[in-house]
Automatic annotation (TrEMBL):
Protein name, per record: 4-hydroxy-tetrahydrodipicolinate synthase
Coiled-coil annotated spans: none
The gene coding this protein: dapA
Site positions for Part of a proton relay during catalysis: T46, Y109
Catalytic residues (positions): Y135, K164
Organism from which the protein derives: Mucilaginibacter myungsuensis
Length: 292
């Protein structure tokens, strides 16, 4: 699974001012990221505002993305939900053309037990047409997937190939790295802790800030992969303030502000998300100018 070593970007979904999906903007974004040197892309993750897209819109975005990427880099589809049987059906009917894996977040809102989380992913693994990357993001789901549950899934299902870990818990990271199968990937799901995670064995990052600054982000990750932590840390330090600004008023509002300044796509979001304040936008523009 070396194609998922390095930097993946959880792409935003650009919208026009009237709220419709901006397909020219999405093409611009895809080309911007590939030109920036990232190793793979994720379509319709949380950063893509997937919760606010209809079934028809999701299908069209996934299809358009696959055709636009055209196998230039690896491509991952975000498919998740809190109704296991509904997600199973989405997995069964997913058109895999152009895609290499599926990223699926642990169920949100229901707050399942560890056994419930295990059974959810077991059901997905049994029908998945592609390798699965787990996603542990307690700040959004309301529950934490334990290291024990991750290791159990990794050992029992060979098509579960890695985890995007965004718990922020080095206790969890350490346990996963100690106990995982040799080829199971720990991937950072938090831009600010990527370099320290890679120092203990993570194989890369699925990034939000990389939407705007793909070259700087992917260079940082490649340096860490190559063991050059001095160079990686220098780039990490240069991104600290930018990364903070990306999340200070919520994601993906921050990174869409930067993308608008860069001329890649607009900064429109769908409710309940809204654009950042003028003060934050000014700070983001200034930091983007410094780093672009």
């Amino acid at each position: 699974m070396n194609r998922f070593y390095g930097t993946g970007v959880a792409m935003v979904t650009p919208f026009l001012a009237d709220g419709q999906v901006d397909y020219p903007g999405l093409k611009n974004l895809i080309d911007h990221l590939i030109d920036g040197g990232v190793e793979y892309l994720i379509s319709l993750g949380t950063t893509g505002e997937s919760a606010t897209l209809s079934k028809e819109e999701k299908h069209k975005v996934l299809e358009f993305t696959a055709k636009t990427v055209n196998k230039r880099v690896a491509l991952v589809a975000g498919i998740a939900g809190n109704n296991t049987m509904e997600v199973v059906e989405q997995f069964r009917t997913f058109d895999v053309e152009g895609y290499d894996a599926i990223l699926s977040a642990s169920p949100h809102y229901n707050k399942p037990t560890q056994e419930g989380i295990y059974q959810h992913y077991k059901a997905l693994a049994e029908v998945s047409p592609l390798p699965i990357i787990l996603y542990n993001v307690p700040s959004r789901t309301g529950s934490t997937m334990s290291a024990e549950t991750t290791i159990r899934l990794a050992n029992e299902f060979k098509n579960i190939i890695g985890i995007k870990e965004a718990s922020g818990s080095f206790d969890i990271f350490n346990q996963i790295l100690r106990d995982k199968p040799a080829d199971f990937m720990l991937i950072s799901g938090d831009d600010p802790v990527t370099v320290p995670m890679m120092a203990i064995g993570a194989v890369g990052l699925i990034s939000v800030t990389g939407n705007a600054l793909p070259k700087r982000t992917s260079d940082m990750v490649r340096h860490a992969l190559n063991g050059n932590f001095k160079a990686a840390t220098e780039l990490h330090n240069s991104l600290i303030e930018f990364t903070r600004l990306m999340f200070v008023e919520g994601s993906p509002a921050g990174v869409k502000t930067s993308l608008k300044h860069l001329g890649v796509c607009g900064d429109t979001l769908r409710l309940p998300l809204v654009q950042v304040s003028n003060k934050t936008a000014e700070a983001i523009v200034a930091e983007t100018e410094k780093l672009k």
